[in-house]
Amino acid sequence: MRLATPGTRFTRLPGSDADRPPEARGIARDQVRLLVSRPSGITHAAFAELGDYVEAGDLLVVNNSATIAAAVDGRRRGEPIAVHFSTSLDDGSWVVELRPPGRATGHLDDVAVGDWIELPDGAGLLVRESFPMPGRAGSRLWRARVAVEVAVPAYLERVGRPIRYAYVPDPWPLAAYQTVFAAVPGSAEMASAARPFTTDLVTALVSRGIAVAPVTLHAGVSSAEAGEPPAPERYAVPAATAQLVNLTRANGRRVIAVGTTATRALETAAGATGSVTAATGWTDLVLGPERGTRVVDGIVTGWHDAGASHLLLLEAVAGLEVVQPAYAAAVASGYLWHEFGDSALLLRR
CB neighbours (10 Å) of residue 10? Predict the structure, then answer.
């Protein structure tokens, strides 16, 4: 399956990668830049000023998934590789991405069914089939059976490290990859749209009458190729959150998702009329031209690369007329990309 091409077009300038956390750049989490894009125009602010653009009665829906130490060194056919643990499946197997060691910029393209990967402390994994579609040569993701004496999460906690891509030259502790809402371990990579939130900011928002409610979506590895749909991910929408969403909409207020993961979870739980019910399971929902949003009126988000499926989701939430000017302004104003970068608030009304 290949996705539609996003309508948003832009070319990032050199030096626009956020190569370290904002704290290492001398600023607090909530002092990264915030670009607000609405049909009425563009505004530049600091993230700590988010409450100036969200109104009393609005609802922020956040992802409470916590990041796990999902990267592990391995050896295949006697050569070193990196293993990124993406998603645990219901049968006990794991979805993994196998990459060259070091600061690689892509996955290994010669992985084969039956490959045995040696892991630290005598563990290993056996490649079973490509994922999510079996029989695909050169797949980015693979289903694998992990041979380890303890539960995989406990094993990763002992020997793993946070997934880190080539644009981040130095390692950072797992705490740098957690949001203030992180409570349920399970994401291979941080639900980074919420990273700029602090306890003080959340307190200030609630004091203004802005509600905050959680969903859970455990994000897999994010290094998808252009046009590649997001893989199925495990999610849960609690009954209390569903009730708050429905009440917010009934009162004519806005539901604003914090991140593409929270959006995907909420929209999976939404019926055709926009009513949300408690739900849990797996989502393969793709938001875009063929399936717009039924519940979400706006989104707090980081900046995504050209051609990424995330852009289709942003366009489904806020419309091309809001997303395209936002990206043009971000490029022109030197905003920083990726999980340690700057933020946007995209509102369609």
Answer: 18
